[in-house]
Amino acid sequence: MICNSLLSQFTNLSCMPCQPVFSSHPSSLSSSIFSSPCFFRNNRNKTQQDKLLLHATTISFSARNQSESTLSIVPNVVSVDRPIKEEPNSMEFHRRNARLRVQNLVDRIRGLPISERIRIIHVFEREQAFQNLSGFNDLLLALFIADEPDLALNLFCNISSYNLMPDSWTFSIIIKCHCKKNDLDEAKRVLENMVEIGFLPSVATFTDLINSFCRKGKLQKAIEILEFMGRIGCKANVQTYNCLLKGLCYVGRVEDAYEFLMKIKKSSVKPDIYSFTAVMDGFCKVGRSDEAMELLDEALEMGMTPNVVSFNTLFNGYCKEGRPIEGISLLKNMKERNCTPDYISYSTLLHGLLKWGNIQAALGVYREMVEAGFEVGERMMNTILRGVCRRSWKEEGLLKDARELFEKMTNEGCAIYPNTYGLVIQTLCVAKEVDKALMYVNEMVRIGYSPPRMITFNCVIRSLCGEGRVDEAVSVLVLICEERRIPSRICYNLLIHEFNRLGRWLGSCTVYGAALKRGVIPHKRPSK
Question: Model-level pTM?
Answer without folding.
Answer: 0.75
